[in-house]
Amino acid sequence: MSYAQFEQSLNDENSLQQTRGVYRQANSALKDCEEKEERLMLLEAWKEFEVNSHYVGALHVKYM
């Protein structure tokens, strides 16, 4: 999540897509993890990012 926050803080033209890529990669890595709470925390952070991005259609991103 720290890396995603770093990408988001760059505020360049690619930061939105790069941040999403970080969240997607982390989500894929945590799908089979026994610690479901870690993935839940990630998905909550990702959702918050999408809500705060003010990007039209942002919440249509597929999490699973």
Question: Characteristics of this structure?
Answer:
64 residues, mainly alpha, elongated
Low-confidence stretches: none
The number of helical elements comes to 3
* Largest sheet data: none
Total strand segments = 0
Tally of structural domains: 1
Helix content: 55-70%
Fraction in beta strands:
under 5%
For the termini, the CA-CA separation is 17 Å
Task: Indicate the radius of gyration in whole angstroms.
Answer: 12 Å
Structure, explained:
With 64 residues, this protein is an all-alpha fold. It has one domain (2-60). It has helices at residues 2-9, 15-30, 36-52. Helix 1 packs antiparallel against helix 2 (15-30) and helix 2 (15-30) runs antiparallel to helix 3. The two termini are 17 Å apart. The mean pLDDT is 76.
Describe the secondary structure blueprint for this structure.
Blueprint: H1 2-9, H2 15-30, H3 36-52
Summarize, please.
The chain is mainly α and 64 residues long. It contains three helices and no strands.
